[in-house]
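#onboarding

Welcome to the new folks! Below is a worked example of what a typical request in this channel looks like: someone posts a single protein sequence, and someone else replies with the predicted structure as tokens. Don't worry about understanding the tokens yet, we'll cover that in week two.

Example request:
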Amino acid sequence: GVQGSWGLGMSSTRSAHGHSHHAAGAGYPLEGVLEEVERQRGPLSKQRTGADYHAVWDAVNRYVTEALAKRQTLNVANFCKIGWKVEDNGQGRPRLRPHFQLADSFIRGYNVFSRASPAPDKFLTVIEEFNYSKAALRFSSCLTKENLFMGLRAIVQHLGEVMSTGQPVAIEFEVGRLSCQDREVKFDFAAELYRREGLDVPQDALQVANYKPSATFAPPSADALTLGLKGTASARSSVSKADEIRAARRDPAVHFESEAPVDELSKAPSSNATGTSRMSSLDRVQQDAFNRHIAQIEVEAAAAITEKDEWEGHLQRCIEEEQKDMLWRRALLKDYSEQLRDQMQEAEDRRLAGREHCIEQASAHDFPNFAEAPEADFLDYMHERRCHLKDDLDQQVDAKRRVKQSEIERERILEATHAELSQRELEQLRRQAEMKKQQERSTLKQAWDQDTRLRAAKKVIEAHHKAPAAKSALLDIMSRKYERQGTSFSATLSLPESDMTSPRAGSALSSPPSARPVTGSVRRMPLNAAASLALHKDRLSTTLRR
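Example response:
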């Protein structure tokens, strides 16, 4: 039967799937995807009719293969477009190239991307929308349109969820392989498609497609193999019976007699010819085959009726859901309109209440009250004010002018004071700078004079053995030394003029002779201890200043 052949085909397909997955060994396999979808969403049909997710994917795969064979582009809604793209070969003639692109909704929904540039529809071959009725009737023997729709949607959703996690995915097709790595989706077409169109085969093209679709027809079932004919008569009787059958086929009367019911033939006496038993066996085999055929037709009719009832029930449920949705939307719109009407009424009530409140507020005071006549004093005051109105205005203008003028004068005085203070401060800074310069100049002059005198004294001291020192120079040095110490050099030491003269002058002085023997030096008489110490300290201070 058809169901038996489909079941054998699916089993062979699944075994082929398992072999291909073990051979590929990379990525999330198709078998795992289908098993995970069936575990999460349950079976497509409660009846064991062979309608499962493997059958759905097999139908989709064969649909894609047929579209590519017809050089068409198949558009699977919310998933992809797979088919052919028209290109120019540079010689003015178009050529076809296999093309695959994901739907924008699939890319946005599952956060995946593809490096292949999408092509507009005008550059693609004839686009065929995926027809679930055609796929169920032509590429499947156990699926309904609803089963195919629900199954394909579940498979695509699970594929998108797996791809969005970044897991490697490898799904085999008959015409190529769909793969995803780090959310990058690509489709590697089979190399045979490129060779068929005379194109260069890309390096990543699939050389051999591991996916094998299920067979439409399977080998004979076990029940069919058990059927056969077996005779019990001898060869002679068989030959005579064969002659009788050929005669019956030539003679209609004999043919009608041979088509008697099986029960009547079985009740015939055994002494009647052996050909009668032979005819009853043949009729029994024919009757059994006919009964099996009728039973198969009844099963298919019952399945068709059940499918029709399910489809009509599904349509009825859809209509009821649409009606409920329509009623809900109608009630929602009605409620919205009522609320809007209430809001408009409340706004109108607030406007009227505000208007009434304004009228009441305007009517609360009694001005002007024409019932009471104004007093005479009030009228005289108003007349006087009208007469002096210009004077009052002139006074206000004059007061404002005086205030403005006083402000201007005050600002001018402030500016002049500020300028004067600034000038004084600059003058003071200038005087301080000049005083500072004078102090520095005097300090430098004193230092220069002192340094000059010290240098002169040093030269005199260094040359004391060469020439007689002037008495005035030594007296000047010693006097400055003792003046720094706070005493008078003349009171402490009085050197006679004869002590500083040279012995070569030939003057005979009555001073006492020195204990030091005459050595012929320029300085005949040495200095005393105080003078030598003063010279030594002056020399040290000069060295330290340098």
